[in-house]
What we know:
Elements: E1 3-8, H1 16-23, E2 29-32, E3 41-45, E4 48-52, E5 65-68, E6 73-74, H2 76-88, E7 98-101, E8 105-106, H3 109-118, H4 134-142, H5 155-168, H6 170-174, H7 184-198, E9 202-203, H8 205-214, E10 219-222, H9 246-251, E11 262-268, E12 271-273, H10 285-294, E13 307-309, E14 311-312, H11 313-323, E15 327-331, E16 341-350, E17 353-355, H12 362-365, E18 369-376, H13 393-406, E19 410-414, E20 422-424
Parallel strand pairs: 1-10, 1-11, 2-5, 2-10, 5-7, 6-8, 7-9, 11-15, 14-16, 15-19
Antiparallel strand pairs: 3-4, 12-13, 16-17, 16-18, 19-20
Helix pairs in contact: 3-4
The structure holds inosinic acid.
Inosinic acid binds next to helix 4.
Amino acid sequence: MPVLVVVGAQWGDEGKGAMVDMLAQEADIVVRFQGGANAGHTVIYRGQPLALHLIPAGITHEHTVCVLGNGVVIDPKALLEEMEKLRSLGIHVSPDRLKISDRAHLTLPYHRILDAAREMAGSRLRLGTTRRGVGPTYVDKVDRVGVRVGDLQHPERLREKLQINFEHKRAFFNALPPEERPDFNAILDEILSYAEVLRPYIADTVTWLNQQADAGKRILLEGAQGTGLDVDFGTYPFVTSSNTTAGGACTGSGLPPTKITEVLGITKAYTTRVGEGPFPTELQGSLAVHLREKGREYGATTGRPRRCGWFDAVLVRYAVMVNGCTALALTKLDVLSGYPEVKVCVAYRFRGDTLTTFPAEVCVLGEVEPVYETLPGWDEPLSHCRSWSQLPSHAQRFVERVRELVGTPIAMVSVGPEREAVLSVPNAPNLW
Ligand code: IMP
């Protein structure tokens, strides 16, 4: 009964999509368990990059069933557009291949307006969100005024729930210029039209997933974003509004902790972050520009340039602890070729003290100085390497040092976006 959780060990964009895509070759079921259309997973499909925002990366494999779990927030318009895009590429999307939890919450058209409003220039709450309405949808869920996917099955109930949700925001709507105020009937009609198409995909995925796990099916739980963006464990308030860590895989799917068999953390060989918030190893100047251009570090959802810096072992060690990672995958090692030396942050300096654990306060994290260990670099490009033994010795040494510093085995290393560019590390644990 292998149930494998894949989570980001940094601030998202670690390359989870490509890893899930590869692992999904051996999976029966792939589940998204949190987040919404804020995520951007890029996989290579027939030689072309394919960016997915809601649907699990497993969809390109004909034999897998994909699930949007109860912890996901679903923008029905974005979902239907994504389904259409996949169909236009010849990918089969039908109710026997895609199941949507009846307990998942819906992102409504005005959730994006609410998200944008708090992000307005000059706002003290500005976080650099993706403006996909994800935070406001989770706010409604916790405030118990959310509209759920299951409501799409009952038009009368949907009208009632939408009415409650709409009234709840009346003061905000009234403050908008009249021409920008959402119209209740127009929104209801829009959602009812989505309901018609989505109804066959709605299922009790909690029961179904548990039955499949009991039947011995191989289940892959695909996290979005990363540990540094977790609403509890990340750099609060500069986080997303869900639990991106392994615990979220249980609450967001209905599979209990006792059914999880492995947790794979994904980390880049360096660090990136999009949006606001502290980033101890962030680089400025030509080194940052070089990493960004070489690693093509631009957001898959918003196109924003990502902030770039050296590998932070304090952050990843913390991610290994919080997620209980049984193994790590180290991605984009090829991007570090060509530097005379490469750096790894092993601790933080804070007002004369040395910190080896990840602090809770962003004001502390914003002030710390990274303590670096310098390792010899390598000149050789790595993108052609197809096995561990083909990596230059200094690249192997970098991977081994990362393993020592974060205290968990590294199962795989990637040197390019293709499936063949994911190399197994000798003596690594078996994930499936
Ligand atoms: P939200 O999830 O749109 O509310 O954004 C909150 C924070 O999470 C912002 O800093 C975003 O840039 C970040 N974020 C959300 N989704 C992703 C992702 O898929 N990759 C990287 N950062 C993300």
